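Peptidase M48, pasting as requested.
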Amino acid sequence: MRTLFRFNWLPFVMGLVVLQSCSRNPVTGKREIILMSADQEIALGQQSHPSIVASMGLYEDKRLQSFISEKGMAMAKISHRPELPYQFNIIDSPVVNAFAVPGGYVYFTRGIMAHFNNEAEFAGVLGHEIGHVTARHSARQQTSQILGTVGLIAGMVISPKLAQFGEQAMQGLQMLMLSYSRAHESESDKIGVEYSSKVGYDAHQMANFFGTIKRISDNAGQSIPNIMSTHPDPGDRFNNVHAMAKDWQAKNVGNYAVNRESYLQMINGIVYGEDPKQGFVENSVFYHPELRFQFPIPNGWQTQNSPVQFVMAPKDGKAEMLLNVAQGSTLDSAAQNMVRQYNLKVLESARKTIHGNQAIVMISQQQPQQQQQGQPQQQQQPQTPANTVQLGTWLIQYNGLIYAIHGVTTADVFGNLYPTFRNTAENFRLLNDPDKLNRKPERIFVKSAPRNGTFKDIMTTLGMPANRIEELGVVNSMKADTPIQKGMLLKVIGK
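C-alpha cells follow.
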C-alpha cells in the first residue's frame, strides 16, 4: 500500500514543481521547466570562478586580457541576457578550448587564442560560449537530469522488472543527456553566428575554425563515434555553420570584418604548448623549475600536468600515480587530513628521510562509503582484493611545502606495483640543473613571408623543421601546398 500511495502522489508533486518552475527561455522564447533561478546561476558562476582560476591559472597578458574583455562586453550587450555580470578570462593552458559557466563567466585558453588566425574566428567562438550562458544550457541540463532521474526512480517504484535493470536504465539516461549536450552545442553554434554577425564579424570564419578543430582531433587520434560525443562532429559543424552564416548574410547584407593582420600582431609572442616553468617531462623525468624538484616517471607511463596536480598512468589503466600539495602544516597533520579526506584505513606507516627531506610513508586502503541516515538503502558490493583501492603514499616535506605522492591500484596487484611506486616517490629530489631551471617556453612569433611559394616552402625558408610542417599548418589553418604571397603574415614557433 505504501508503494502505491507514494506513486499516486508523485504526479501531483511533480506537477507543482513544473507549475512553479516554468519560465520563458530568453533565446528561444519557449516556455520550459527550469529548476535553477537566474540568481542561482549567478551565484554558481561566482562560486566556480575562484576554483577555476586556482586549478588552471590565468594567463598574464594585459593586451590580450583587455581585448577579450572589450569584445566580450560588446557582444554581451547585444545578447539575449545583457543584464548578467559577465567576466571574460584567458586561462594559462595549452589545451585548445573555451568554456562558460552559468552567470556570465567565459573562459578562453591561451591554447585556443594561439590557434585563432583572425578576430572573426575568435568572435564566432565567443558568441558560441555566450550562447551557452544566454540559452541557460547548464540550468536546462541540470533540470533534464533531475526530472529524468525522478521519472526513472518513479518507474522503478512501480515496476520491479525495471528495477532489475536499474543500472542499464541509468546508462540509458546518461546517453540521453549526451544528446541534450549535442543539441545545446548546435544551438550555441547558431547563436554564435547571430551574435558575431551582429557585432560585425564574418561568421564564415567561425566555420573555418571548426576545420582547425577537426585537424587537431584527427592528428591526436581522438575521433570517437558521434553518439558517444557531447559535441557534434567538427566536420558537420563546419558545413552547418557555413550554411547558417551564408543565410544570415543573405538576409542582412553588409560588410563583415575578418581582421587577420591585427589579430596576428596582437598574439605575437604568446606562449605555445606546455610552459616549462609549470613543469615538463623529458627523458622519463618530471622537472619543475619553479618549485625546484624532479622525480622519475615509470617506464612507458603517460602523464598529464596541471597547476594543481601531476598524474602518471600506464596505458592499461590499472594504476596511477599522483603528485599534489598536501593539506597541513606538518607531516602528521597532512597524514591525518589525508586519511580523513579519502576515508582511508592505514595498514602501515613509517617515518624516513628521502634525499635529505623528512617524510612519512603510508600504505592504506580506501573504505566503503557509509550509508548516511535518511538515504535509501543500497545493496553494497562485497569488498574483495580486486575491488578494494589500495594506496602507497609518500608525504615529503620540501621547501616549506608538504608534497603527497600517491601510488594507487587495487589490493590484488598492489604488491606487484609497489616497487614501481617506491622508485618514483623515493627519487623525489632537488632540481639544480641550470639547463632545466632556465628552460624557456616555445612561443608563437609572427613573420612576413620573404617571397612567393607554398606554405611548406616558406616555412622551410623561415627555419622551421620538416617534422613540424603539419603542426604549423594547423596553427596557421593552412595546408602544405597552400600558396603564400610575399609579405603575408604567418605564425612560426620558436623560443
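Note for the archive: Confidence is low (pLDDT under 50) at residues 1-23, 31-35, 140-180, 222-231.
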